[in-house]
Amino acid sequence: MAVQLQACDPVDRGARKEDMMVGVMVEDERAALAGHLRAVAERRDKAAFAALFAFYAPRVKGYLIRQGCQPAQAEDLAQEVMAAVWRKAGLYDPAKAEASTWVFTIARNLRIDAIRRERYPQVELDDGARELPDDRPAADDVVSTGQRARLVQRAIATLPPDQAEVIRQSFFQDKAHTAIAEDLGLPLGTVKSRMRLAMIKIRAALGEQEP
Amino acid sequence: MTYHSVKTSPPNHHASDALLLSYAAGALPSGVALAVAAHTTLCADCAHRAAVAEDIGGSLLDRAEPAALCPDALARTFGRIEAPEATPPPRMHDVPPHLAGLPGPLRAAVNALPDTRWRLLAPGIRQIDLNPGARGGGSSRLFRISPGTTLPHHGHAGIELTLILQGSFTDEVGRFQVGDLAELEDDVVHQPIVDSAEDCICLIATEAPLRFSSLLGRLMQPLFGL
After folding, report:
1. ipTM (interface predicted TM)
2. What does pTM read for this prediction?
3. Is B190 helix (H, G, I), strand (E, B) or coil?
4. Model confidence over B50-76: pLDDT tens digits?
Protein backbone atom coordinates (compact mmCIF):
# COMPACT_ATOMS: atom_id res chain seq x y z
CA MET A 1 0.00 0.00 0.00
CA ALA A 2 1.55 3.25 -1.11
CA VAL A 3 1.08 5.91 1.50
CA GLN A 4 1.99 9.40 0.43
CA LEU A 5 3.70 11.64 2.90
CA GLN A 6 5.25 14.77 1.54
CA ALA A 7 6.81 16.28 4.63
CA CYS A 8 10.15 14.65 3.99
CA ASP A 9 10.18 15.00 0.25
CA PRO A 10 12.08 18.13 -0.64
CA VAL A 11 12.11 17.16 -4.32
CA ASP A 12 8.42 17.95 -4.59
CA ARG A 13 8.84 21.69 -5.04
CA GLY A 14 5.38 22.05 -6.53
CA ALA A 15 3.78 21.25 -3.20
CA ARG A 16 5.54 24.06 -1.38
CA LYS A 17 2.92 26.77 -1.81
CA GLU A 18 0.16 24.36 -0.96
CA ASP A 19 2.12 23.26 2.13
CA MET A 20 2.03 26.78 3.45
CA MET A 21 -1.72 27.01 2.95
CA VAL A 22 -2.16 23.70 4.74
CA GLY A 23 0.07 25.14 7.46
CA VAL A 24 -2.26 28.09 7.96
CA MET A 25 -5.32 25.89 8.10
CA VAL A 26 -3.69 23.51 10.48
CA GLU A 27 -2.66 26.36 12.75
CA ASP A 28 -6.29 27.34 13.40
CA GLU A 29 -7.21 23.73 13.84
CA ARG A 30 -4.25 23.33 16.18
CA ALA A 31 -5.44 26.00 18.61
CA ALA A 32 -8.76 24.16 18.72
CA LEU A 33 -6.97 20.84 19.36
CA ALA A 34 -5.09 22.22 22.37
CA GLY A 35 -8.44 23.51 23.68
CA HIS A 36 -10.01 20.08 23.17
CA LEU A 37 -7.17 18.47 25.12
CA ARG A 38 -7.77 20.89 27.97
CA ALA A 39 -11.52 20.13 27.88
CA VAL A 40 -10.81 16.41 28.08
CA ALA A 41 -8.40 16.97 30.97
CA GLU A 42 -10.65 19.28 32.95
CA ARG A 43 -14.17 18.07 32.17
CA ARG A 44 -13.75 14.63 30.57
CA ASP A 45 -15.52 16.24 27.62
CA LYS A 46 -16.53 13.49 25.18
CA ALA A 47 -17.38 15.83 22.31
CA ALA A 48 -13.93 17.43 22.59
CA PHE A 49 -12.41 13.96 22.60
CA ALA A 50 -14.38 13.04 19.47
CA ALA A 51 -12.85 16.07 17.74
CA LEU A 52 -9.35 15.01 18.83
CA PHE A 53 -10.13 11.51 17.63
CA ALA A 54 -11.27 12.74 14.22
CA PHE A 55 -7.98 14.60 13.74
CA TYR A 56 -5.43 12.29 15.33
CA ALA A 57 -6.71 8.71 15.06
CA PRO A 58 -6.49 8.51 11.22
CA ARG A 59 -3.10 10.24 11.27
CA VAL A 60 -1.72 7.90 13.90
CA LYS A 61 -3.03 4.93 11.91
CA GLY A 62 -1.55 6.32 8.69
CA TYR A 63 1.80 6.98 10.37
CA LEU A 64 1.91 3.44 11.78
CA ILE A 65 1.12 1.95 8.37
CA ARG A 66 3.87 4.07 6.89
CA GLN A 67 6.17 2.52 9.51
CA GLY A 68 5.25 -0.93 8.28
CA CYS A 69 2.43 -1.88 10.65
CA GLN A 70 -0.27 -4.15 9.23
CA PRO A 71 -3.59 -2.24 8.94
CA ALA A 72 -5.31 -4.35 11.64
CA GLN A 73 -2.49 -3.74 14.12
CA ALA A 74 -2.35 -0.06 13.15
CA GLU A 75 -6.09 0.23 13.84
CA ASP A 76 -5.71 -1.46 17.23
CA LEU A 77 -2.72 0.72 18.18
CA ALA A 78 -4.40 3.92 16.98
CA GLN A 79 -7.36 3.19 19.28
CA GLU A 80 -4.97 2.39 22.14
CA VAL A 81 -3.08 5.65 21.53
CA MET A 82 -6.32 7.64 21.63
CA ALA A 83 -7.38 5.88 24.85
CA ALA A 84 -4.00 6.94 26.33
CA VAL A 85 -4.64 10.51 25.12
CA TRP A 86 -7.88 10.46 27.13
CA ARG A 87 -6.20 9.04 30.24
CA LYS A 88 -3.12 11.28 30.12
CA ALA A 89 -4.71 14.53 28.90
CA GLY A 90 -4.10 16.13 32.30
CA LEU A 91 -0.34 15.71 31.83
CA TYR A 92 -0.24 17.68 28.59
CA ASP A 93 1.40 21.08 29.02
CA PRO A 94 0.85 23.34 25.98
CA ALA A 95 3.75 25.58 27.06
CA LYS A 96 6.19 22.69 26.71
CA ALA A 97 5.17 20.80 23.60
CA GLU A 98 2.94 20.91 20.58
CA ALA A 99 -0.14 18.70 20.91
CA SER A 100 1.02 16.69 17.90
CA THR A 101 4.47 16.16 19.43
CA TRP A 102 2.85 14.91 22.61
CA VAL A 103 0.57 12.51 20.72
CA PHE A 104 3.55 11.39 18.64
CA THR A 105 5.52 10.38 21.76
CA ILE A 106 2.53 8.41 23.08
CA ALA A 107 2.19 6.61 19.73
CA ARG A 108 5.95 5.96 19.56
CA ASN A 109 6.04 4.40 23.03
CA LEU A 110 2.93 2.26 22.62
CA ARG A 111 4.09 1.00 19.24
CA ILE A 112 7.42 -0.11 20.66
CA ASP A 113 5.74 -1.68 23.70
CA ALA A 114 3.52 -3.65 21.33
CA ILE A 115 6.08 -4.65 18.73
CA ARG A 116 9.12 -5.36 20.87
CA ARG A 117 7.11 -6.43 23.90
CA GLU A 118 9.25 -4.20 26.07
CA ARG A 119 8.88 -0.67 27.34
CA TYR A 120 10.61 2.19 25.57
CA PRO A 121 12.44 4.16 28.25
CA GLN A 122 10.82 7.51 28.63
CA VAL A 123 11.01 10.60 30.71
CA GLU A 124 8.02 11.23 32.95
CA LEU A 125 6.97 14.75 33.82
CA ASP A 126 8.02 14.38 37.44
CA ASP A 127 11.53 13.23 36.58
CA GLY A 128 12.66 16.82 36.79
CA ALA A 129 13.81 16.14 33.28
CA ARG A 130 13.23 19.22 31.36
CA GLU A 131 13.03 21.39 34.50
CA LEU A 132 16.78 21.78 34.91
CA PRO A 133 18.20 25.26 35.27
CA ASP A 134 18.64 26.52 31.78
CA ASP A 135 19.42 30.04 30.64
CA ARG A 136 17.69 29.40 27.35
CA PRO A 137 14.35 31.18 26.90
CA ALA A 138 11.36 28.85 27.21
CA ALA A 139 10.25 27.31 23.93
CA ASP A 140 7.06 29.34 23.80
CA ASP A 141 8.89 32.62 24.47
CA VAL A 142 10.79 32.37 21.21
CA VAL A 143 7.94 31.19 19.02
CA SER A 144 4.47 30.34 20.21
CA THR A 145 3.55 26.69 20.23
CA GLY A 146 1.39 26.37 17.16
CA GLN A 147 3.71 28.58 15.18
CA ARG A 148 6.42 26.17 16.22
CA ALA A 149 4.84 23.21 14.41
CA ARG A 150 4.55 25.18 11.19
CA LEU A 151 8.18 26.30 11.37
CA VAL A 152 9.39 22.74 11.98
CA GLN A 153 7.27 21.49 9.07
CA ARG A 154 8.67 24.06 6.69
CA ALA A 155 12.24 23.40 7.83
CA ILE A 156 11.79 19.66 7.22
CA ALA A 157 10.28 20.31 3.79
CA THR A 158 13.30 22.34 2.73
CA LEU A 159 16.06 19.98 3.93
CA PRO A 160 18.50 18.82 1.25
CA PRO A 161 17.65 15.29 0.01
CA ASP A 162 20.49 13.53 1.84
CA GLN A 163 19.43 15.03 5.18
CA ALA A 164 15.72 14.37 4.52
CA GLU A 165 16.59 10.76 3.71
CA VAL A 166 18.25 10.07 7.08
CA ILE A 167 15.31 11.68 8.91
CA ARG A 168 12.89 9.56 6.87
CA GLN A 169 14.78 6.35 7.66
CA SER A 170 14.91 7.19 11.39
CA PHE A 171 11.24 7.97 11.77
CA PHE A 172 9.66 5.63 9.22
CA GLN A 173 12.05 2.69 9.01
CA ASP A 174 12.89 2.32 12.66
CA LYS A 175 16.62 2.55 12.03
CA ALA A 176 19.13 4.01 14.45
CA HIS A 177 21.91 6.12 12.92
CA THR A 178 24.26 3.13 13.07
CA ALA A 179 21.85 0.96 11.04
CA ILE A 180 21.28 3.76 8.52
CA ALA A 181 25.04 4.09 7.97
CA GLU A 182 25.28 0.34 7.42
CA ASP A 183 22.35 0.24 4.99
CA LEU A 184 23.48 3.23 2.98
CA GLY A 185 27.07 1.95 2.98
CA LEU A 186 28.25 5.26 4.43
CA PRO A 187 30.72 5.98 7.21
CA LEU A 188 28.89 6.51 10.50
CA GLY A 189 30.40 10.00 10.73
CA THR A 190 28.70 10.98 7.46
CA VAL A 191 25.26 9.94 8.71
CA LYS A 192 25.83 11.65 12.05
CA SER A 193 26.86 14.85 10.34
CA ARG A 194 23.76 14.81 8.09
CA MET A 195 21.60 14.43 11.17
CA ARG A 196 23.48 17.20 12.94
CA LEU A 197 23.05 19.54 9.97
CA ALA A 198 19.33 18.73 9.80
CA MET A 199 18.93 19.51 13.50
CA ILE A 200 20.85 22.77 13.10
CA LYS A 201 18.51 23.83 10.28
CA ILE A 202 15.40 22.97 12.25
CA ARG A 203 16.68 24.77 15.34
CA ALA A 204 17.61 27.77 13.21
CA ALA A 205 14.05 27.82 11.83
CA LEU A 206 12.87 28.01 15.45
CA GLY A 207 15.07 31.03 16.02
CA GLU A 208 17.72 29.15 17.96
CA GLN A 209 21.41 29.59 17.48
CA GLU A 210 23.87 26.77 17.57
CA PRO A 211 25.53 26.84 20.98
CA MET B 1 26.89 2.08 50.29
CA THR B 2 24.19 4.38 49.12
CA TYR B 3 23.82 6.07 45.80
CA HIS B 4 23.88 9.85 46.22
CA SER B 5 22.33 12.06 43.63
CA VAL B 6 24.75 14.95 43.59
CA LYS B 7 24.02 17.73 41.14
CA THR B 8 27.18 19.49 40.14
CA SER B 9 27.85 21.73 37.16
CA PRO B 10 26.09 20.98 33.86
CA PRO B 11 27.52 17.98 32.00
CA ASN B 12 30.47 18.46 29.66
CA HIS B 13 29.91 15.38 27.54
CA HIS B 14 26.63 15.32 25.62
CA ALA B 15 24.53 13.10 23.38
CA SER B 16 25.09 13.71 19.66
CA ASP B 17 22.22 15.03 17.55
CA ALA B 18 22.18 11.67 15.74
CA LEU B 19 21.68 9.82 19.01
CA LEU B 20 18.90 12.18 20.10
CA LEU B 21 17.18 11.91 16.72
CA SER B 22 17.32 8.12 16.84
CA TYR B 23 15.95 8.23 20.39
CA ALA B 24 13.13 10.60 19.42
CA ALA B 25 12.24 8.46 16.41
CA GLY B 26 11.93 5.38 18.63
CA ALA B 27 14.70 3.64 16.71
CA LEU B 28 17.16 2.86 19.53
CA PRO B 29 17.46 -0.49 21.24
CA SER B 30 15.92 -0.17 24.69
CA GLY B 31 19.17 -0.27 26.69
CA VAL B 32 20.72 2.56 24.70
CA ALA B 33 17.42 4.46 24.80
CA LEU B 34 17.46 4.10 28.60
CA ALA B 35 20.87 5.80 28.82
CA VAL B 36 19.68 8.65 26.58
CA ALA B 37 16.42 9.13 28.52
CA ALA B 38 18.32 9.16 31.83
CA HIS B 39 20.92 11.61 30.49
CA THR B 40 18.20 14.05 29.42
CA THR B 41 17.03 14.19 33.05
CA LEU B 42 20.52 15.42 34.01
CA CYS B 43 21.30 17.67 31.04
CA ALA B 44 19.11 20.62 30.05
CA ASP B 45 20.85 21.00 26.70
CA CYS B 46 20.20 17.43 25.61
CA ALA B 47 16.64 17.54 27.01
CA HIS B 48 16.02 20.56 24.80
CA ARG B 49 17.51 18.99 21.69
CA ALA B 50 15.54 15.78 22.32
CA ALA B 51 12.37 17.90 22.48
CA VAL B 52 13.22 19.49 19.10
CA ALA B 53 13.83 16.02 17.64
CA GLU B 54 10.45 14.92 18.97
CA ASP B 55 8.91 17.96 17.27
CA ILE B 56 10.05 16.37 14.00
CA GLY B 57 7.94 13.33 14.91
CA GLY B 58 5.00 15.56 15.80
CA SER B 59 5.34 17.34 12.49
CA LEU B 60 5.48 14.07 10.53
CA LEU B 61 2.39 12.88 12.41
CA ASP B 62 0.57 16.11 11.56
CA ARG B 63 1.33 15.58 7.91
CA ALA B 64 0.74 11.82 7.84
CA GLU B 65 -1.65 10.58 5.19
CA PRO B 66 -4.81 9.81 7.21
CA ALA B 67 -5.93 6.16 7.12
CA ALA B 68 -9.63 5.60 7.74
CA LEU B 69 -10.52 3.72 10.90
CA CYS B 70 -13.34 1.20 11.40
CA PRO B 71 -16.73 2.97 11.47
CA ASP B 72 -17.16 2.15 15.17
CA ALA B 73 -13.56 2.98 16.18
CA LEU B 74 -14.53 5.90 18.41
CA ALA B 75 -17.08 3.78 20.29
CA ARG B 76 -14.52 0.98 20.67
CA THR B 77 -12.02 3.49 22.01
CA PHE B 78 -14.51 4.66 24.62
CA GLY B 79 -14.92 0.96 25.45
CA ARG B 80 -11.15 0.69 26.05
CA ILE B 81 -11.22 3.81 28.18
CA GLU B 82 -13.92 2.38 30.40
CA ALA B 83 -12.39 -1.09 30.63
CA PRO B 84 -9.70 -1.55 33.28
CA GLU B 85 -6.22 -1.59 31.74
CA ALA B 86 -5.41 -5.13 30.64
CA THR B 87 -1.77 -5.01 31.64
CA PRO B 88 -0.93 -2.64 34.48
CA PRO B 89 2.65 -1.33 34.26
CA PRO B 90 5.11 -3.74 35.87
CA ARG B 91 5.76 -2.84 39.46
CA MET B 92 7.30 -5.65 41.44
CA HIS B 93 8.55 -3.62 44.38
CA ASP B 94 9.64 -0.13 45.29
CA VAL B 95 13.10 1.07 44.41
CA PRO B 96 15.40 0.00 47.26
CA PRO B 97 17.00 2.81 49.27
CA HIS B 98 20.47 2.21 47.83
CA LEU B 99 19.15 3.10 44.37
CA ALA B 100 16.51 5.70 45.27
CA GLY B 101 18.50 8.65 43.94
CA LEU B 102 18.69 7.33 40.39
CA PRO B 103 17.14 9.35 37.53
CA GLY B 104 13.48 8.51 36.88
CA PRO B 105 13.91 6.34 33.78
CA LEU B 106 16.47 4.21 35.66
CA ARG B 107 14.20 3.92 38.70
CA ALA B 108 11.51 2.61 36.35
CA ALA B 109 13.95 0.02 34.97
CA VAL B 110 15.07 -1.01 38.47
CA ASN B 111 11.41 -1.26 39.52
CA ALA B 112 10.82 -4.03 37.03
CA LEU B 113 13.71 -6.19 38.33
CA PRO B 114 13.21 -9.15 40.64
CA ASP B 115 16.70 -8.70 42.15
CA THR B 116 18.40 -5.35 42.69
CA ARG B 117 21.47 -6.39 44.71
CA TRP B 118 24.95 -5.46 43.54
CA ARG B 119 26.68 -8.58 42.25
CA LEU B 120 30.45 -8.89 42.50
CA LEU B 121 31.81 -9.34 39.00
CA ALA B 122 35.53 -8.94 39.45
CA PRO B 123 37.71 -7.34 42.10
CA GLY B 124 36.45 -3.77 42.56
CA ILE B 125 33.58 -4.19 40.07
CA ARG B 126 29.94 -4.82 40.97
CA GLN B 127 26.94 -4.79 38.65
CA ILE B 128 23.17 -4.89 38.41
CA ASP B 129 21.87 -6.22 35.11
CA LEU B 130 18.92 -4.05 34.05
CA ASN B 131 17.97 -6.25 31.13
CA PRO B 132 18.53 -9.81 32.35
CA GLY B 133 16.72 -11.34 29.37
CA ALA B 134 19.05 -9.39 27.05
CA ARG B 135 16.30 -9.06 24.48
CA GLY B 136 17.31 -7.39 21.25
CA GLY B 137 20.98 -8.30 21.62
CA GLY B 138 22.04 -5.18 23.49
CA SER B 139 22.57 -4.76 27.19
CA SER B 140 22.17 -2.22 29.97
CA ARG B 141 23.91 -2.59 33.30
CA LEU B 142 24.64 -0.50 36.31
CA PHE B 143 28.26 -0.75 37.40
CA ARG B 144 29.77 0.21 40.73
CA ILE B 145 33.50 0.45 40.40
CA SER B 146 35.99 1.09 43.20
CA PRO B 147 38.42 4.02 43.05
CA GLY B 148 41.56 3.24 41.05
CA THR B 149 39.97 0.27 39.31
CA THR B 150 40.45 -0.10 35.59
CA LEU B 151 37.74 -1.67 33.47
CA PRO B 152 39.15 -4.29 31.11
CA HIS B 153 40.30 -2.99 27.74
CA HIS B 154 37.39 -3.53 25.38
CA GLY B 155 36.02 -2.68 21.99
CA HIS B 156 32.51 -3.13 20.67
CA ALA B 157 30.30 -3.12 17.62
CA GLY B 158 27.63 -0.46 17.41
CA ILE B 159 26.87 2.15 20.02
CA GLU B 160 28.17 2.05 23.58
CA LEU B 161 26.91 4.66 26.01
CA THR B 162 28.18 5.28 29.52
CA LEU B 163 26.25 7.61 31.80
CA ILE B 164 28.04 8.67 35.00
CA LEU B 165 25.77 8.71 38.04
CA GLN B 166 28.33 9.08 40.82
CA GLY B 167 32.08 9.65 40.97
CA SER B 168 34.14 9.98 37.81
CA PHE B 169 36.44 8.17 35.42
CA THR B 170 39.02 9.01 32.80
CA ASP B 171 39.69 7.24 29.55
CA GLU B 172 41.44 7.98 26.26
CA VAL B 173 38.66 10.45 25.38
CA GLY B 174 38.66 12.55 28.55
CA ARG B 175 37.33 12.87 32.07
CA PHE B 176 33.70 11.97 32.74
CA GLN B 177 31.76 13.22 35.77
CA VAL B 178 28.20 13.03 37.08
CA GLY B 179 25.66 13.57 34.28
CA ASP B 180 28.23 13.13 31.51
CA LEU B 181 27.37 10.77 28.67
CA ALA B 182 30.24 8.98 26.95
CA GLU B 183 29.14 8.06 23.44
CA LEU B 184 31.51 5.62 21.82
CA GLU B 185 31.31 4.19 18.37
CA ASP B 186 32.32 1.14 16.41
CA ASP B 187 35.82 -0.07 16.94
CA VAL B 188 36.84 2.44 19.56
CA VAL B 189 38.88 0.52 22.09
CA HIS B 190 39.01 2.19 25.46
CA GLN B 191 40.07 1.54 29.02
CA PRO B 192 38.36 3.68 31.64
CA ILE B 193 39.93 4.10 35.10
CA VAL B 194 37.98 5.39 38.09
CA ASP B 195 39.70 8.53 39.38
CA SER B 196 37.22 9.68 42.06
CA ALA B 197 37.68 9.13 45.81
CA GLU B 198 34.29 7.41 46.00
CA ASP B 199 32.99 4.51 43.97
CA CYS B 200 32.00 5.37 40.42
CA ILE B 201 28.45 4.33 39.58
CA CYS B 202 27.61 4.32 35.91
CA LEU B 203 25.13 2.91 33.46
CA ILE B 204 26.71 1.18 30.49
CA ALA B 205 24.39 0.40 27.61
CA THR B 206 25.39 -1.26 24.38
CA GLU B 207 23.76 -1.94 21.06
CA ALA B 208 25.75 -5.17 20.63
CA PRO B 209 27.89 -7.34 22.90
CA LEU B 210 31.22 -5.94 24.13
CA ARG B 211 34.46 -7.52 22.92
CA PHE B 212 37.28 -7.57 25.39
CA SER B 213 40.67 -7.33 23.76
CA SER B 214 42.92 -8.40 26.61
CA LEU B 215 43.33 -11.95 27.86
CA LEU B 216 41.91 -10.93 31.26
CA GLY B 217 38.99 -9.32 29.47
CA ARG B 218 38.32 -12.42 27.43
CA LEU B 219 38.43 -14.51 30.57
CA MET B 220 35.96 -12.10 32.18
CA GLN B 221 33.64 -11.96 29.20
CA PRO B 222 31.42 -14.84 30.35
CA LEU B 223 31.21 -13.18 33.76
CA PHE B 224 30.15 -9.86 32.31
CA GLY B 225 27.83 -11.58 29.92
CA LEU B 226 28.20 -8.43 27.87
Report:
1. 0.85
2. 0.85
3. strand
4. 999 999 999 999 999 999 999 999 999
